[in-house]
Amino acid sequence: MDIGALVAWVVTALGGFVLLARWISRGGLRQQQTGGTRFPAPLVFGHFLLAAAGLVVWIVYLATDRGALAWTSFGILVAVALLGFAMFARWVPVYRAAPAGEETTPAERHLPVPVVAAHGVLGAATLVLVLLAALGLGGS
């Protein structure tokens, strides 16, 4: 279960990198100043940094087998998931809206739906796997 959670986390992170790179390349950071994006930079980077920190804690847990670290990773992952849900809730109306001119289109409108969906599903699977591992279910 521990290694399965690690694999799910890493694959989820790869999808997150794709989404972050796409958001930045489509002007997400520039749109912060004009209000053109519904994704505040602290939300985007908070989600990214907490996920990365949780992954590091999970790797340390795998190396040391200290149960407190598994629960710490799970707690961090819950916060990551809440930030992710907040971004998803902000993304859906933007994606459903009629496309505006390229210069006024929010950067998040350009996020690929399959990557968003896979990132969310894999993130949820990671959360469940980390919880099961922290509970000591399913072996290592």
What would you note in describing this structure?
The chain has 140 residues and is mostly helical. It has one domain. The protein contains 5 helices and no strands. The protein has helices at residues 2-25, 31-34, 41-64, 67-96, 113-134. It starts with a helix and ends in a 6-residue tail after the last helix.
* Mean pLDDT across residues: 92
Tell me, briefly, the overall form.
elongated
Low-confidence sequence ranges: none
For the sheet with most strands, the description reads:
none
Number of helices: 5
Can you write the helix and strand succession as a string? HHHHH
Question: What percentage of the residues does DSSP assign to strands (E)?
Answer: under 5%
User: How much helix, percentage-wise, in residues?
Assistant: over 70%
Domain tally: 1
Please sum up the structure shown.
By secondary structure, the protein is mostly helical. The protein is 74% helix and 0% strand.
Notable characteristics:
single chain; 140 residues; mainly alpha; 5 helices; 0% strand; elongated
Question: Which secondary structure elements does this structure contain, and how are they paired or packed?
Answer:
Blueprint: H1 2-25, H2 31-34, H3 41-64, H4 67-96, H5 113-134
